[in-house]
Design a protein that fits this description.
Helices cover 0% and strands 54% of the residues. By secondary structure, the protein is mainly beta. This is WYL domain-containing protein.
Length: 67
């Protein structure tokens, strides 16, 4: 089963930047267009743009459920 990311979704990614540094980030997806993912990095709170081709792995973040 292939997962599809969507705007409004919170995901965790493993990403390689243009300098070749690999990082793991939790982001909130704002939009996806032309192989670019606009998102807010939840660690820094900063808006970022990620190239889809540079995402090595990703998974949805499980929502916290309160009793």
């Amino acid at each position: 089963m292939k997962m599809k990311m969507a705007a409004g979704q919170t995901i965790e990614i493993v990403y390689v930047d243009k300098a070749g540094k690999i990082t793991q980030r939790r982001i909130e997806v704002k939009g996806i267009r032309d192989g670019r993912i606009r998102a807010t990095c939840l660690t820094t709170g900063a808006p970022r743009v990620f190239l889809a081709a540079n995402i090595l792995a990703w998974q949805p973040v499980a929502e916290k459920r309160y009793a």
